[in-house]
Design brief:
The complex is a heterodimer of chains A (396) and B (518). By secondary structure, chain A is α+β, with helices and mostly antiparallel strands. Chain A contains eight helices and 19 strands. By secondary structure, chain B is α/β, with parallel strands linked by helices. The longest helix of chain B is centred in the N-terminal third of the chain and has 22 residues.
Chain lengths: 396, 518
């Protein structure tokens, strides 16, 4: 038998998302980045326009490269409750919860959003590939785990006019509270969630009907100032909202090779999401031990003097002892503050919060300049508009 | 509501379970042993083979029982019997007899490799004595820091081991470190020519494990066998009597023993043990459970959701492929072997004609096949202690039988296993076949079904370098404590491992007491 010698073309390089035809047409900057193997815009037009559109209008951001897993079956709740640190039993049908899950040493593997469809059906959405981990977690439980990452396309529609836009597009979502989600039309789920800290929604749809959804929103959005945005603008917003980015503000422990690079939810400041009273969950015994012995680091929100972004800068106590570094730093155009997230070695950041300094290096037109500026720790997100929580959201 | 209440419940009334119960009871704790079958002993039991003939159900020899432990457990009397000689049967009739450090031909002629054997034996015994220092306590962990008393004790023990290793002298220490991870085949054939003597050593190196003598780590398993001298003995009254004695010792110390019902559930509430439910529905309240059954089976009884995902993954990947089948032959009369007197006939008869043959015995098992010439260890206990019925029993362990051959077990497969043993023995005792009135075969699958040993493995988990000390049975559960506070492993799957030693049971009970659980 002659062997089939027909060449099969395997596409090389980054993969286009279902929304790529629209993004490609809109992109004037042609600044693409690689997000988990997919072509994703860093900037489509200019980062300033896109940022202000998120804060003042409506914006579409393609989040299809997020990993999406379906977990269904009689034991789905039990299995997930053993995996994540939060009590999943308290997550009602039609609700979404921010969750973290740890390895046996209590180190965060990843964080994400857990969507409960019904008593026995969940969707987990996260950054890192998690299929084999979920299979390991599901062993011994009556659950079916499916990787929907490629099957489901997703869009983040964020901004103060997003509710008005969706209403104009014919969706009845006025009663959708923050962290609610619902199948608004067959095959189209809308959740009131997002990564910007403002009013916003995320839309989940089969990839085959991704483009008609985009066109429907785009058409309805003309009156509401709709723009497509890239990651650079979203990143400013998420720092303003105080949200963490995996591999930036903490290292997803399965992606680390060196010892002790992982961080626990306690160290990341999420003690409230660690429900020690719910029975065993992965890493619980290690986390209890750490809670008793003390944390190694604290992740803090910081406010820095001046206006020079401090991303990556070292932090000193009394200008002498090095005690940490800035994990995400940016000038917040809305808060008009120089903000960031920082990892401080314990007890700095918890019991020692004064006399902390950031060393910022600035390179301007061939000259390096160093500034030592004071930093203040804050508890609250830098940007937290009331409209983000209002139900029904105010028409704009 | 609970029907009963104990400080600790021991799952499984095999030798390790009974030793654990006895150790706890002697420390003043109330203990209950739950054995699912109607007799004690697990693999170390006697069985009625029909017509009142009694034979060893599975294990038939004790060779690794530390004298100190035997005394502590009240077993001195059962182990008063004389050491058995080992006879490696040779196709050419020049059978080799091994007694302690002496090897000779059965016909009285000196063996050309006698000196090499003596040197090797002595050397291995010295190394084994070093290793056995690690066997009668929990594996070292050093996690507590220098201010911690138990860590200091561990350090002291390790310092003693270090000093003892140093005392070996430079050449011997170097040799120890050279061979410890090596394979038995190279070790033996470096010292002597291949033949029944080399074969016998290699057979002892692989016994019970899914390895051949060329597999790495087989020098370690050989040393492990010799940890308490390696002298084989038939316990007085048979294997069952040994377990009965352990049971009596535990009961005398105050332990309660329940047979004929298993444990269907280990109850965990708020991450501590609260009790067990028996398969007959009774409930027992307790704060500590010591399980001598398989590690995964134990995890499932307690619910895998009480274990970390990584621990369950390691349990799933734990190596435990059973490779030993047990054959009991009931004989009208004892067949003779030319050149062996009565004392030698009552000894440990080995069919392992060469190191090469032992390796070839392993080959079919690798591929799930039944081999034609597996390595055998046979003993006729009725020659040492006559059976009341007057019949004789030949107890044979057949090494390198797959857990389940391709296509599953059927009568044809079972007959082939029996024939593989009988045919090889008939080369030396031609009238064997005509004397057989009954043949009882337990395949590794049968052993798993009867005892719960994972994969029907003789040692509950392969005795590989990756599954000893802190890594036995899995990383993270090496010091008997098994994830859920109050849950402990005390079977052969725990450190130091298999054979009738009582050590896992004893160490586990001591660790439980030291941890202050009860």
């Amino acid at each position: 038998m002659p062997r089939d010698t027909q060449a099969v073309t395997v596409p090389l390089g980054a993969i286009a998302t279902p929304f790529h035809p629209r993004l490609e047409a809109l992109s004037t900057a042609k600044q693409w980045s690689n997000w988990a193997g997919f072509i994703s815009p860093a900037v489509l037009d200019t980062v300033e326009f896109e940022y202000f559109a998120i804060r003042n209008q409506s914006t579409l951001y393609d989040i299809s490269p997020m990993k999406k897993y379906s977990i269904t079956g009689p034991d789905a709740e039990r299995m997930l409750n053993r995996m994540v640190t939060r009590d999943v039993r308290k997550l009602r049908d039609g609700r979404v919860g921010y969750v973290m899950w740890c390895d046996e040493e209590g180190m965060v593997i990843d964080d994400g959003t857990l969507f409960r469809q019904s008593g026995q059906a969940f969707r987990l959405c996260c950054q890192e590939p998690m299929y084999s981990w979920l299979l390991d977690c599901g062993w011994g439980f009556d659950v079916e785990i499916r990787d929907d990452s490629d099957a489901v396309a997703a869009l983040a529609l964020q901004g103060p006019t997003s509710f008005s836009l969706l209403s104009d597009a014919g969706f009845e979502i006025a009663d959708l509270k923050p962290f609610d989600w619902r199948e608004v039309e067959p095959g189209l789920w809308i959740s009131r969630t997002g990564f910007t800290g403002d009013l916003g929604y995320e839309l989940w749809v089969d990839r085959a009907v991704a483009l008609p959804l985009w066109d429907r929103l785009w058409q309805a959005g003309q009156h509401w100032g709709i723009r497509a945005v890239g990651y650079d603008a979203v990143n400013i917003c998420r720092i303003e909202a105080g949200f963490l980015a995996a591999r930036v503000d903490f290292q997803a422990v399965h992606a680390t090779e060196r010892l002790h690079r992982g961080r626990t939810p306690l160290e990341l400041g999420f003690e409230k999401l660690v429900h020690f009273d719910k029975g065993h969950f992965n890493g619980r015994r290690a986390l209890l031990k750490q809670r008793d012995k003390g944390l190694r680091t604290h992740l803090c929100k910081i406010d820095i003097d001046g206006f020079k972004p401090a991303d990556g800068a070292l932090i000193y106590h009394r200008k002498r002892r090095e005690v940490g570094h800035v994990t995400s730093g940016v000038w917040s155009p809305t808060a008009k503050r120089n903000i960031g997230l920082a990892e401080l070695k314990a007890p700095y950041g918890k019991s020692i919060t004064k006399d902390l300094w950031v060393e910022i290096y600035v390179f301007e037109e061939g000259v390096w300049d160093k500034r030592i500026v004071p930093l203040t720790l804050t508890d609250r997100p830098f940007y937290q508009p009331a409209r983000a929580r209002l139900t029904p959201p105010a028409a704009f | 509501m609970s029907d009963l209440s104990f400080d600790a419940v021991v799952i499984g009334g095999g030798h390790n379970g009974l030793v654990a119960a006895g150790t706890l009871a002697r420390a003043g704790k109330s203990v209950c042993v739950i054995e699912q079958s109607d007799h004690l002993g697990g693999m170390a039991s006697s069985v009625d083979l029909g017509d009142g003939v009694v034979g060893p159900l599975m294990a038939h020899l004790v060779f690794n029982m530390d004298d100190k432990i035997a005394k502590e457990l009240g077993l001195r009397d059962s182990l008063q019997s004389d050491p058995l000689p080992s006879i490696s049967l040779a196709p050419d009739g020049w059978h080799v007899v091994m007694e302690g450090r002496v090897a000779r031909f059965a016909n009285g002629r000196p063996h050309p490799d006698a000196n090499a054997y003596r040197d090797l034996h002595d050397r291995l015994l010295r190394y084994a004595a070093l290793l056995s220092q690690l066997a009668d306590r929990s594996p070292p962990q050093f996690s507590g820091g220098l201010s911690d008393l138990s860590t200091l004790r561990e350090l002291a023990a390790m310092a003693k081991l270090g000093i003892d290793m140093k005392r070996l002298g430079k050449a011997d220490l170097r040799e120890f470190l050279r061979v410890i991870l090596s394979n038995a085949y190279d070790l033996v054939l470096d010292e002597m020519s291949d033949g029944p003597l080399a074969g016998a050593i290699c057979a002892d190196a692989v016994r019970g494990n899914f390895v051949g003598p060329r597999s790495p780590g087989t020098v370690f398993t050989l040393m492990y066998r010799m940890g308490a001298g390696g002298v084989p003995r038939l316990p007085k009254g048979g294997m069952g009597q040994l377990s009965q004695a352990l049971g009596r010792a535990a009961e005398a110390a105050g332990a309660k023993i329940i047979t004929g019902t298993g444990v269907s559930d280990i109850e965990v509430k708020d991450d501590v043990i609260t009790g067990v439910t028996l398969s007959d529905g009774r409930q027992i309240a307790t704060r500590a459970v010591l399980s001598s059954t398989g590690p995964m089976c134990t995890a499932q009884l307690a619910g895998v959701e009480n274990f970390d995902v990584e621990a369950v993954r390691r349990l799933r990947n734990m190596r435990a492929k059973g490779t030993v089948a047990k054959l009991n032959l009931v004989l009208r009369d004892v067949p003779r072997i030319d050149g062996l007197d009565d004392r030698l006939m009552a000894g440990r008869l080995l069919v392992a004609p060469s190191a090469e043959a032992v390796e070839q015995s392993f080959n079919p098992a690798k591929y799930g096949e039944i081999g034609p010439r597996p390595v055998l260890e046979a003993v006729i206990p009725t020659l040492s202690e006559p059976d009341q019925s007057g019949a004789h029993v030949m107890s044979i362990t057949i090494q390198h039988v797959p857990h389940t051959p391709d296509g599953g077990w059927d009568m044809v497969g079972r007959e082939r296993v029996i024939a593989s043993a009988v045919d090889q023995l008939e080369m030396h005792m031609p009238d064997l076949g005509s004397q057989i009135t009954q043949a009882h075969l337990l395949t590794p699958a049968d052993i798993e079904a009867a005892t719960g040993a994972p994969g029907g493995h003789w040692h509950h988990a392969e005795m590989g370098i990756d599954q000893i000390l802190n890594l036995r049975p899995i990383n993270g559960a090496g010091r008997y404590a098994f994830a859920v506070p109050g849950l402990y492993l005390c079977g052969a799957g725990a450190h130091p491992g298999g054979d009738v030693t009582g050590r896992p049971g004893r160490n586990s009970a001591k660790q439980l007491l030291q941890d202050g659980v009860i």
